[in-house]
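Q: A small favour: would you put together sequence and structure tokens for a protein?
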Amino acid sequence: MKLLTIDTSTAACSVALSTGGEIVSEFLVNQGRQLSARLLDSVDLLLREAGLSVTDLDGFGVAIGPGSFTGLRVGISTVKGLAVAAGKPVVGFSSLAMLAMNLPWALHPVCPMFDARKKEVYTALYDCRALPVVLMADRVVSPPLFLEKLAGPVIFVGEGAVRYRELVEERLGDRAYFAPHSANLPRASAGAVLANAAFARGEALPPELLVPAYIRPSEAELALMGRETP
């Protein structure tokens, strides 16, 4: 299966091309949100280098959240547009599960963390001894509250874990382990593994049914709810 996978859930942006589950090429840059404007150029580069066109692909995968509201909208809308143009199906997957995939075969549960601002993190807990198995579902929560729920050794990964490392160490002590710096960025190549598995399970969708998993309301939605409150 020829699959194009995109992630724009954080300040890092990545695109991966895979064939039969094997990664052919990947483009990853961690230069802030402006990279999203160059997303189509990145897609075009990967396809040209592989000698393929969009219509040669069998499907698309994309991280649907949680993460940056703007980034998620850019990635999902791009995949929808490409899928409609190619007439091919799509699958979505958790951006946190994708980040946890950076630590395959981990002996201890893996806790991916994105900084959600407002003194909160997007986080979850996964068993990563094979494909990620959910132990605690994706959520947005204050770090102290979430850390109270953790027992036993846990491996932390992601820029949220970097930001709150001192707090994690204070609360969990020697039960806390941290991924190497190189593992802290989500990668579309890891998402491609999740996307291929989703296609194999028959979870493909027509592009119009693909929706983001923001987890919490956007500022615009909060403002609207405030205006509607009597």
Summary: The beta strands are 2-7, 13-19, 22-29, 59-65, 90-94, 110-117, 120-127, 133-141, 154-157, 176-178. Confidence is low (pLDDT under 50) at residues 220-230.
